[in-house]
């Protein structure tokens, strides 16, 4: 993975030198000086090892376009993307879990069919289309919510991120509803649940002790997938709502050929997804000891 990210500089138009000069014509002496400064004449493996050592220490170099340390750019703008993704995740969980629970309890009834249909519809609509619709309705037509910028302060930030978070969360609400409803329905249809009810165990206790307890592995997996998708999905939504997050930074860096920023964002995103998947696997073993982590490695 890391070598593939490093190799981006060789497949990018103009390569490193082209990115540094911005495609402008320069003398051969300047080209030679740039190649020497960036050790571009060293063997590829030597260049890769030097780049990897710097990357592991958090040093991704300097942005070719903004002339700022890449790690500072990622921290400053990545924090906004993380806040947006977490906000959308909270919205998705708060809406999806109760909806799925009601659907599972009333399996086969009108409430279940309505929840399932809503989930399918939510999954089918792309987040950028929802974002544009929300921007038009709440920002332009009714003018009751801000539609651009990150806002200042805690409540100002929440106010500005509400529409983007809803746009991101909608599709994931559908996913979590389907997974949670299926897992809960399966757990509540088991013989031991019927036996517990026949003994007079309350419905709430059956739901918590038998339903959710035996569904948490599936729910945890869906939650991990949801958060991963939300992190990746911030790119288009940030662009629509003019949010200066990591998604906007990635689009701008790709357009400008800012290789260090593109490489750094790719590595950080891949590492985040890897760590998140590992945490989901560990959490699954806590809820279900039968899960073997050695099979996931």
Describe the overall structure.
The protein is built from 15 helices and no strands. The chain is mostly helical. The protein has 2 domains: about 1-55, no CATH class; about 80-295, MetI-like (MetI-like fold, Orthogonal Bundle), CATH 1.10.3720. The two termini are about 15 Å apart. It is found in: Cell membrane. Belongs to the binding-protein-dependent transport system permease family.
The gyration radius over C-alpha positions equals 24 Å
The chain-level mean pLDDT equals 82
Which stretches are low in confidence, meaning pLDDT under 50 for 5 or more residues running?
A: none
Please report the first level of CATH classification, the CATH class of the largest domain: Mainly Alpha
- The figure for the number of domains is 2
- N to C succession of SSEs: HHHHHHHHHHHHHHH
Number of separate helices: 15
Please tell me what the overall shape is. elongated
Oligomer: single chain
Q: Structural class, please? A: mainly alpha
Terminal Cα separation, in Å?
16 Å
| Beta content | under 5%
- The strand count comes to 0
- The assigned CATH architecture of the largest domain is Orthogonal Bundle
Membrane topology: Multi-pass membrane protein
Subcellular location: Cell membrane
Main location: membrane
Protein name: ABC transmembrane type-1 domain-containing protein
